[in-house]
Amino acid sequence: MPKPIRGADIVARTLDAAGLRTVFTLSGNHIMSLFDAALDTGLRLIHVRHEAAAVHMADAWGRLNGQCGIVWVSGGAGFTNAAAALCTARAAESPLVLLAAHAGLKELGRGAFQELRQAEMAAPVAKASWTAKSAASLGHEVAEAARIARSGRPGPVHLSLPFDLLDEKLDDVPSLWPTPSAFDPQAQLLEVSAAEKVLAELAKAKRPLVLVGPQLCHSGDLSRLETLEGALGTPVIPMESPRGLNDARLGAFAEVLRQADLIVLLGKALDFTLRFGDPPIVDPACRFIAIDAEAQMIERIAREKGERLAYSVVADAIPAIPTLIERARAKAEHRAWTDEVRSAVAYRPAPWATLVSAQPGKVHPVELCRALEAVLATRPNAILVCDGGEIGQWPQALLAPSRRLINGPAASIGASIPFAIAARASDPAAPVVAVMGDGTFGFHMAEFDTAVRYGLPFVAVVGNDAAWNAEHQIQLREYGRNRAHGCELLPSRYDLVAQALGGHGELVTAAGELAPAIERALASGKPACVNVMIERVPAPSIRRSTTS
Ligand SMILES: Cc1ncc(C[n+]2csc(CCOP(=O)(O)OP(=O)(O)O)c2C)c(N)n1
Ligand SMILES: [Mg+2]
Prior knowledge:
By secondary structure, the protein is an alpha/beta fold. It is built from 21 helices and 19 strands.
């Protein structure tokens, strides 16, 4: 006789068997059966202080590991808190599965506890979003969610789990369990003949560029892009910032983009980050190639660019890279052009090298980055997180760690503390440094408690300018100083917040104190906040014609 099993056990065991063992969660009535089921598996629960933080953690997990991050939250408001954070993961092409409790199927339409059309609500911020159909299909539906999250252009998937299905008892028969391959992404491989066509177009072009989207920036495995650039003899440019062509990491790239005669969009959406590829940012005669997992993306590019879309193919971006490298033996050389692009990307204003703050008791963000550069130089396995408005742009401009997490094209601030905690959970030996604004710190500062409970140290370096400065700068530019309001904050002691929650805190008011304070924070072995009083300056907008 098969033993009876609960729906909740099917979910927990399915995740365990697939190796998806770290679950970011916050408890709630209807998922307590999942918590109970987890005890009989190898699952590790990391329970947090706000559901959005759990999603941000799973997002970071997905970006760092290429595996799905897993989230469990309650239904109703637990779900809505979580769903809001899917927006960041969706734009960043990050694979995760949000499993949310849901009113019982049997009570739907009768004003059930926490009854809400969750699947509809998450649909615009998820790759797929649905409510589980039966207890017997729960394992298969979880596998399907994970498969969709990692197929094509990766992204978050939401699956609501009606609590009556989680509580239902059924016989443990083999048909309940998905096969390991049910989790595998559906691959769309770039055919050799397609790769040859792309290479032939590259060979004909004089000033080609390959632009790659967020999914190729995730692992921080820049060497993959460098190898591609070397093999193609064509500059390969990562684009994952909501600032698009003003991405400080790309230096003066916008100036050379205008000269390109062929742009290969390798898994890179033609969107606002590229100003839609329209003139004057792109030459009106420039041609395009699109290699994209989504036929709809290619159709849109074809509609917008007409005959200037020289070639297109539906294929996944990541596995396309080895195929392109393999076939690129007779590569076209664009050495002078590649050097020109590289020097534009590497350009930083010369005055930055010697810049020091003119304001007593304050540090300039460039000085902050100088100290961080020294700290990171001795830690090649470090993970750098950048968040916040203006402050977050400076480390993106000045630091080049091998692993980096930024908020991404959704332009959402606030994820950095959860990102840092998940980064440490994912690589317990990695020093994790998160640079963020003072406004941003407030979004998830309670997660210091989570980090303390789980012994997951990281250093939050807060650029404290007592303002939502990015928006304040817009007011200064667009409306004038005397109409700037609603963006002031206090120069609060966030370092003491960290201490109060069991972490380590440092207050820094002079550049000379920075490196020692960050070193002490790392050495503390605790979640730490280095609260740095900084000048309220605009983010860099790098052009070779200007010095700021
Ligand atoms: C979730 C979210 N809310 C609001 C915004 C708008 N926004 C962008 S930057 C910014 C200010 C951030 O302030 P802070 O973290 O202190 O960084 P600063 O700009 O001061 O360096 C705001 C409010 C956003 N991008 N995302
Ligand atoms: Mg600020």
